[in-house]
């Protein structure tokens, strides 16, 4: 990020409080002029809190829906931002594949069964495989020398890698294949697995009217409060039994003033009682040096080569108009550069793009100049 040192320091304190679990249930409001980097600060917070903490981003306009009421839409968004880390123990078979024997029917049709020989450094065992397990072995392309793990409850086969003992054998290994040591101890063992899921996903799965398929389609609809109450009680039981851990996340609502059209004259367009309950971070306008750095970064991201004069011209335009307008001029100027088959974007390209596409201030002047032509 460029500039906004005070806002970044405040955001750093918020990130530390989020990681320590000291800010649960509180509201943070990021205010500032248009184009001053409010969303960039929020995205910086999302990248800093880590992958374990849920971060949900929505726009305030998403609250308005024909299918969902506003309280239901907000409730679903809040429950998406609350994660539940569930711990469970499963029995697995882990070892190196010594041999696979598959008995195929002579007719070619019908179930296929076989035998699977697994070994560790301490023992070796032979298992009979049914049709489903045999099909999974063929699908995963399991061969002798692979280190695999089989979940006994679900029958899921996970290929961990290739045995180091087979590394001397001639074999074409891809970049995704890795050499691992043969496991030691018992073939059958109990492994603790940790899965993280949001409260909203649990709501959808347990909703009889939609079921788990709604998790993939996104069409959840209204969820009854009774379902949520039962799920909350169950999650509390899991937490007391040390089977689950609740992870409070972050819900970021962009353009939060949109749902409050009756509070246009209020500070920041939100009710005063809501504003009084928020921690407020203020962003300031960028200076000339910061604008130049941001435009250079944006041009580099869009793979646009610009000379120094064109960058300086864009900086002056940004000071008179807005940063967003200048960022849009970068791509349009590059198209003009391609048409004349030049190597870099020049001042002439920027000026031509400026003349073709007007900014908000010039648009407003045109509207005021021809206001008699429009319906009042």
From TrEMBL:
Its main location: nucleus. This is RuvB-like helicase. It catalyses: ATP + H2O = ADP + phosphate + H(+). It is found in: Nucleus. SUPFAM superfamilies: P-loop containing nucleoside triphosphate hydrolases. Residues 24-310 form the AAA+ ATPase domain. It comes from Globodera rostochiensis. Belongs to the RuvB family. Gene3D superfamilies: 1.10.8.60, P-loop containing nucleotide triphosphate hydrolases, RuvB-like helicase, domain II. InterPro entries: AAA+_ATPase (IPR003593), P-loop_NTPase (IPR027417), RuvB-like (IPR027238), RuvB-like_C (IPR041048), RuvBL1/2_DNA/RNA_bd_dom (IPR042487), TIP49_P-loop (IPR010339). Its EC number is 3.6.4.12. One of its GO terms (molecular function) is hydrolase activity.
